[in-house]
Fold each of these.
Amino acid sequence: MATNKNRHDGHREGAVRDRSQFRTPSGDWAKRDARTGRILDVKSDGTRFKGVRRESTGSE
């Protein structure tokens, strides 16, 4: 049986699939499900999500 090793170095292997992130008008980063368009999570500390692709808005 295969096991995933616990790396503890603060990064993931590969990209997050079926997710994207965008900046809200208030400046927070929000994560969206690419299939349904539903907002999954919002970060209020001003930093982006790790490994999640950004939606192109043309302003960034």
Amino acid sequence: MVKLRAVLDTNILVAGLSSQRGASFALITHALAGRFELLASPALWLEYEAVLKRREIFALHGLSTGDVDDVLDALAGIVTPVQSHFLWRPQLRDPNDEMVLEAAVNGQASFLVTLNVRDFALAASRWKIKLLAPGAFLLLLEKTP
């Protein structure tokens, strides 16, 4: 069985930790269960941590710093690290999104999962990476044996 390889945009982690009812939370759960191969570069990982620990994001998810560290530690145990051998910048309008795309390109991801599908559309198609919203990726995972 070939495991799906995916990069999760930071907004998926924010949404998933902010509500246990949505597709983003289910994707975090599936990643931890090994249902797909989660890819992240060191730069993207540092972004995950920095964003999840912003004051305004704490107000959304209501977790403590220790809780965020626990989630990141659990994900670190299953993530496949991606080395960025090449920086493909600029590819996107938002420079803060470049590290997400670079992790997907350098990690040879099949999927990039984001709440900002429109922002990544042109660049993802250029690199033949399937771009999906969390609900669509969740449906794909549930259909995959």
